[in-house]
Amino acid sequence: MFFRSVDTRSNAARLMADFHLSFQHPHHRTRATTLGKAPRFQVHLYLFGGKSFSWSTNIPRYHRVWVNSRHGATERRVNADGIPTRMGAKGTWRVDRHFRDLGPAIELAERLAGLTDGSDVAYWASFTESGKFAFQPASHLHPSMLVPGLQGQRIVEDEIVAVEREPYAGIVYDLNIEHLHNYVANGVVVHNSIYSWRGVDVRGLLDFRARHPSGQEVTLDHSHRATRHLVQLANVLSDLLAYRSGLVTDNPAGPAARLLQADDEHAEADFIANQIGSLVERGLLAHPGLPPPGLQP
């Protein structure tokens, strides 16, 4: 009963935040394929982990997506989604694909992860012959850790001797290197723009006039769904972020907005789910599949 009363998830999230650690980037991943009756479904994406080598750099050139599992129901879902599988060792099945471009590799990895509850994608990069590097944010780097570095024309393992933190407030430039998304900065091999292949970049909107001076710009600034309080709040936030929205609405003011400071995305989701459940119980919100409050089927 004592351990049930301790909110370990929120406390752990707060502790990780204090040390600038990301829950989405663990330093260790289990290799087990099953745990009791619950399947472990780990999708792996290896940058430069394919079988075709580039002799100029002596590292693999293709990106590899693979998964290995024993769970039959998951394999049936994967096949039903149009992804072929093949027989693996010791009664397992597997998917193993190689891509020249990183974008399609990420798309397949995310599709595979989405076919099983609780699975995620483990991102790796194979730069040297001795092993692989896990994707980690810069805040995770500490002395004695190994990182890929450039030595002459070869990529080698280099040990971190010291880490210095400097406060910074300003523009952060996001480089997008076609096909690879990797580049060398001050002798260290880094990765960026892992999701930019989707085109999710606000600069595409902000720089539209400069890039397309002859284009016609149509501003959709009238909200027909949000209340006036929410529109005003959105305008204030966009001004603070330098992304001026200028939204307007003819809707009534509505209830005042509430600020929630959640420890992580799980706490935020739990709060929202509880609020929706409360509104449904009080008859203020229709349950999915049922008519709105006050209307008869």
Summarize the structure.
It contains seven helices and 14 strands. It has helices at 8-18, 72-80, 102-114, 203-206, 208-211, 228-240, 265-281; strands at 34-35, 38-39, 42-47, 53-54, 59-60, 63-69, 86-87, 93-99, 120-125, 133-134, 146-151, 154-159, 182-185, 188-191.
What does this structure look like?
The protein is an alpha+beta fold and 297 residues long. Among the domains are: 8-125, no CATH class; 221-281, 3-Layer(aba) Sandwich (Rossmann fold). It contains seven helices and 14 strands. The protein has helices at 8-18, 72-80, 102-114, 203-206, 208-211, 228-240, 265-281, and strands at residues 34-35, 38-39, 42-47, 53-54, 59-60, 63-69, 86-87, 93-99, 120-125, 133-134, 146-151, 154-159, 182-185, 188-191. The strands form five sheets. Strands 7-8-6-3-9-10 form a six-stranded mixed sheet, covered by helices on one side. The protein has a two-stranded antiparallel ribbon with strand order 1-2. It has a two-stranded antiparallel ribbon with strand order 4-5. The two termini are 46 Å apart. 11% of the residues are buried.
